[in-house]
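User: Could you go from structure to sequence for me? I need the amino acid at each position, not a summary. Structure tokens:
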């Protein structure tokens, strides 16, 4: 019984170290989101931080600021979804698909 418990503890410690390493890597990873057929592009990290926002000048219309705002929100939301999907994929590689409540990215 003690050997199995010791083995389980080592596996848990390895998983914890792997998850910490993956979270650091996700902070550096970048994904893109687009809206308006690529007229607005947002880049975020795997930690959901906005890195850049590109707006094609053709979509800037002083008479329709609301459309531009909607495109920016849509591009950022798309990038955030992509970042979340990337984080879930990477974390499931470590956890073997286990759903662990309270773990970021799961």
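Assistant: Here is the amino acid at each position, in order:
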């Amino acid at each position: 019984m003690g050997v199995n418990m010791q083995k389980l503890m080592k596996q848990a410690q390895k998983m914890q170290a792997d998850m910490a390493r993956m979270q650091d890597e996700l902070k550096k990873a970048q994904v893109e989101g687009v809206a308006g057929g690529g007229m607005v592009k947002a880049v975020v990290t795997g930690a959901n931080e906005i890195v850049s926002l590109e707006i094609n000048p053709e979509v800037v219309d002083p008479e329709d600021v609301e459309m531009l705002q909607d495109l920016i929100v849509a591009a950022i939301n798309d990038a955030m979804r992509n970042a979340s999907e990337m984080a879930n994929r990477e974390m499931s590689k470590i956890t073997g698909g286990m759903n662990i409540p309270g773990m970021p990215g799961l």
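One structural detail worth keeping in mind: The chain has one domain: 2-95.
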